[in-house]
Amino acid sequence: MSTFVVFDLEFTSWPRALEQDWSAPGQLREIVQIGALRLREDCTVVEEYEALVRPPVNTELSSYFTELTGISQHDVDRDGLPAAEALGDFLGFCRDQTVLSYGNDMVVLGENVGWARARGEQLKHSFLDAAFVNIRPWLNAVAPPTAAANVGRLWSVLGLPKPVSGQEHSALFDCYSFAAALSHLRTAGTPLPEGCR
Predict the structure, then answer these.
(1) pTM
(2) What CA–CA distance (Å, rounded) separates 108 from 104?
(3) Residue 89, burial from CB neighbour count under 10 angstroms (0-12, 13-18, 19+)
């Protein structure tokens, strides 16, 4: 049976950064947490991937980011991987897979890969070894109530049971919310996009 991956990122942020598209000086969308699930065609989970990442430029997390995600400076200092290591490991998890995001997370991933390479760091795997697809437009079209929801709320706006313990803006929780939405749509008879079946 073939598999595919869903993933979510948490990245550095500050008050109004989203509205300003991270345009203030020094505001880079540096990855702090990566979550991913490898799913079977029936949307059951085969494998999880989760990593904390130490952002190399904005090394001190904003209080806004910590309040939003629950990720503390202590967590990142203690458990965070160097960016190139985490990116390489994650790209290895995605190798030869269709990889789905709910939004522009693949753009943020690409930015972080580019910055690592610009710093002269080597990644174990390539961004080009997987097929990254933003399926938010498709999902919003087939399930209109999701249009205003972030990935961590998909389960809620579709009236589904909470998929796992945790909270939105935790990358792995958001992946389970994403997977629950896909499973619900598949069970309801909506064919999933090519690469997921």
Answers:
(1) 0.95
(2) 7
(3) middle
How far apart CA 21 and CA 126 sit, in angstroms, is 26
pLDDT beyond 70 at 1: no
| Neighbouring C-beta atoms of residue 45, cutoff 10 Å | 17
The pLDDT tens digits of the residues spanning 129-181 come to: 899 999 999 999 999 999 999 999 999 999 999 999 999 999 999 999 999 99
Contact 99, 4 (CB under 8 A): yes
Rounded (5°) CA angle 52-69-164: 85
Residue 83 CB contacts under 8 Å (≥ 6 apart), including other chains: 30, 31, 53, 54, 55, 56, 112, 115, 116, 121
Structural domains in the chain plus CATH codes: 3-135 (3.30.420.10)
Distance CA 84, CA 101 (A): 21
